[in-house]
Amino acid sequence: MSILLNKDFTFIVQGITGREAVNLTKECLDYGSKVVGGVTPGRKGREVHGVPVFDTVEQAIERHGDPVDGSVVTVPPAFTKDAVFEAIENGIKLIVVVTERIPRRDVAEMVELAGMRGARIIGPNCLGVIVPEVCKMGGIGGPAKDAAKAYARGPVGVMSRSGGMTTEISSSLSAAGLGVSTAVSIGGDAIIGSTYAELMPLFEADEQTDAIVIYTEPGGRMEAQLGEWVRENDSRLPIVAFMAGKFMDDEEMKGMSFGHAGTIVEGKEDTAAEKIARLEAAAITVVERIDEIPDAVKGKLGVAA
Amino acid sequence: MRFFEYESRRMVELAGIPVTEYGFCTTAADARAAAEKIGGPVVIKSQVLTGGRMKAGGVQFADTSEEAERHAADILELEINGQMPRGVLVDPKAEVKQEYYAGVVWDGTRKQPLMLFSDMGGIDIEEVAEKHPDHVGRGHLSNLLPVSDFEAKQVVAAAGVSGSQLNQATGVLARLGRLFRERDMTLAEINPLAELEDGSFVALDAHMEMEDEAKGRQKALLEKALEIAAEDTREPYEPSEFERNVSEIDSADHRGVIQGRDHGFTGNLGLVIGAGGGSLTLTDAVRSQGGRPANYSEIGGNPSVAKACGLARQVLLKEGVEKIAVMMSIVSNTRVDIVARGVIKACLELDKDPGETIAIFRIPGAWEEEGEKILERYGVEYCDRSVSMWEAAGRAVQKIQG
Asked: In chain B, which residues have their Cβ closer than 8 Å to the Cβ of A260?
């Protein structure tokens, strides 16, 4: 199995006629994903790689005839909140928000409405979710042939604050003969729809997943929250973590954000050193080097390196 | 985006929270006039975007307008933590009965604003929370429902406040909560919030920070009400020539994104690296293996040859740079061959041998075969995804250290 997606999972793309969205739609279709419609207000009647375009989410669902499981939202920041509200209020339960530079207040509003309606948001500022050889929702891994090269099926769940590093790490796990159950690019903003700790129960319940790898950065309390979750829930899953951006702990880098909006050291809790300590206190293995990840996972799983 | 105290106070005032009759002045003569208008003892406060101004001598008390003028003249010349003041704030010296703290911040775990209130104002709230937790009230705000007064009241009551003080403070905190949400703040603090001898409440100091992503939709507030110029970006430091040049090259062409930083970097190995997470990982990998990066950079989103060339060129032009390392995590959108062309072009334009100048090229992914052909032609050492980011960084460090 996997988390979030499966082979029958259907989704639409909001903002489908945008340049990035057109590419993303093709990539997903080529990978075998079921993209059943797209929405761009005013563009009803067009097609994007054979996918019909509608003015509203409601029309897209009506044409499909059955409930639609998910939506990839890739519209400009000023319109993202409305697009996500539209998806939620039309009964869509999994929303991947690709857009970056959305004000935090808008993200918080989306997340709160999703919570009220039993929907889940991944992102914003993310590349989406991939279940190797089954379904890809978003730009994660790139074109189908590249995604196939980097993502093999296997027992490791991957969660990453960086979209690119999701693929880099998954590729190294695949090359080492381990492979990936589900990889989630969770997004790099200060507030995101689904944190490590919020996705852990799904991986915990997934039979295919035997270990977790997380990629993390300075800024925020997400790692502390994961540590608390692991301790409180006596998780069966060993976790290997990699922390990037240690150079940001230097005093002269204080108050500057690097890479992602949420990656900034303001207080002590934001530093790489503090986060590593929190993770290790929860018996999570933090590797120093990015290339140590596969062997660390093998060690945890009792597989020969 | 951080605001000066005089701007923060103006925002508080606009939100309907009482403030004293303060004056913002940029000359000592203006400060004297402001003190005369107030007509009693005043406080002169340096307007800088940094803490610790009291300790640094940036806050002075004056009984007469002459004294106010002298203090203002001194403070206007006083550098605090590397910053010269924007001006001074002249404030009547208030007869304070009790100091309180009122604040709103984001709680990233709950994903909601968190209101904080304490009857121990004037000091750092984190210190109060640690030493006197029973003096701090807390309460989250919904992102969707309007801010109700009762929510603020509960927080004030939880700090142990009652009587007419509770009613006064409730109004202030509720308004601060609304300001926080409506103005896209990431921090909104009044500290101290003062109860005067006559029982009224006024904000004696305020600290506001706004989310950068929301500056566009808060334009009316920023430019009209606060008169902040669009180019006044409030970076924590002045951008360097390198940073300005890279940013200029980036905005000249909409294809792809490049970013360059060199604040705090002084090494000899130039980095042309990407993207966000990859740049963080690679900068660490270079440093951990004894390398000295000359800069931080980000490249991604499928840049043009000109853009990749522009970034590499700026890095190569930096003083002290001997070689560059061109490295990324696996790319799916950015074309490897285009980046290869760009960095080679930069070397050639500066009469440098690409094979000597580029210590390592490690960008696996889209169009990598085409990229490899070009790199081979110029004798540039490259590697594919089987060589980790750590190892690639290590090879670059080794080459530069001989």
From this structure: 276-277
Q: How many CB atoms lie within 10 A of CB B401?
A: 12
B192 preceded by cis ω (within 30°)? Answer: yes
* Backbone angles phi and psi of B103, in degrees to 5: -150, 155
Contact residues on chain B for A109, CB-CB shorter than 8 A? 143-144
3-state secondary structure of A43: coil
φ, ψ at B203 (rounded to 5°): -80, 115
Q: Which of B273, B325, B334 is nearest to B302 (CA)?
A: B334
B143 with A111: Cβ contact below 8 A: yes
Q: How far apart are CA B250 and CA B307, in angstroms?
A: 7
Q: Of the candidates A126, A192, A210, which has an alpha carbon nearest to the alpha carbon of residue A165?
A: A126
Q: Is A85 on the interface with B (CB under 8 A)?
A: no
Mutate to test the interface with B, among A19, A97, A105 (most CBs of B within 10 A): A105
Q: Which pLDDT tens digit goes with each residue over A163-202? A: 999 999 999 999 999 999 999 999 999 999 999 999 999 9
> A96-105 burial, b for 16+ CB within 10 Å, e for fewer?
bbbbbbbbbb
Helices A196-204 and A222-233: crossing angle in degrees, nearest 10, is 30
**Sheet of strand B88-92, all strands in order from the earlier edge strand to the far edge:** B23-25, B88-92, B42-46, B59-62
Q: How many CB atoms lie within 10 A of CB A82?
A: 14
- What is the value of ipTM here, to two decimals? 0.95
Quick check: B233 and B12 in contact, CB under 8 A?
Answer: no
With residue B145 as reference, give the H or E element that holds it.
none
Contact list in B for residue A221 (CB cut-off 8 A) is 108-109
β pairing state of A51-54 and A47-48: antiparallel
> B33 CB contacts (<8 Å, ≥6 apart)?
B25, B65
* pLDDT given for residue A240 in this prediction: 98
With a CB cutoff of 8 Å and minimum separation 6, the contacts of A17 are A38, A40, A43, A46, A48, A53
Structure tokens at A29: 């279709």
Q: Mean per-residue pLDDT for B159-168?
A: 97
Is A33 in a helix, a strand, or coil? coil
State residue A303's pLDDT score: 85
Q: CA-to-CA distance for B81 and B2, rounded, in angstroms? A: 16
What b/e string do you get for A108-130 counting C-beta neighbours within 10 Å, with b at 16 or more?
A: bbbbbbbbeeebbbbbbbbbbbb
Mean pLDDT for A14-35 is: 96
Q: The tokens of B100 are what?
A: 């309180």
**Contact between residue B101 and residue B117 where contact means Cβ atoms under 8 Å apart:** yes
Looking at the complex, report in whole angstroms how far the Cα of residue B122 sits from the nearest Cα belonging to chain A. 20
The label of the residue with tokens 């080529």 reads A30
Q: How many CB atoms lie within 10 A of CB A188?
A: 25
**Tokens 């991939």 sit on residue:** A130
Q: What whole-number distance in Å separates Cα of residue A40 and Cα of residue A48? A: 11
pLDDT of residue B108: 92
**Inter-axis angle of helices A272-281 and A222-233, nearest 10:** 0
CA distance A108 to A283: 31
Closest CA to A266 of B186, B83, B180: B186
> In whole angstroms, what is the distance from residue A124 CA to residue B142 CA?
20
Distance separating alpha carbons of residues B158 and B140, to the nearest angstrom: 13
Q: pLDDT for A220-272, tens place per residue? A: 999 999 999 999 999 999 999 999 999 999 988 888 889 898 898 888 889 99
DSSP states along B213-225: GGTTTTHIIIIII
d(CA B20, CA B91): 7
Q: How far apart are the first and last CA of chain B?
A: 44
For residue B122, pLDDT over 90 is answered with: no
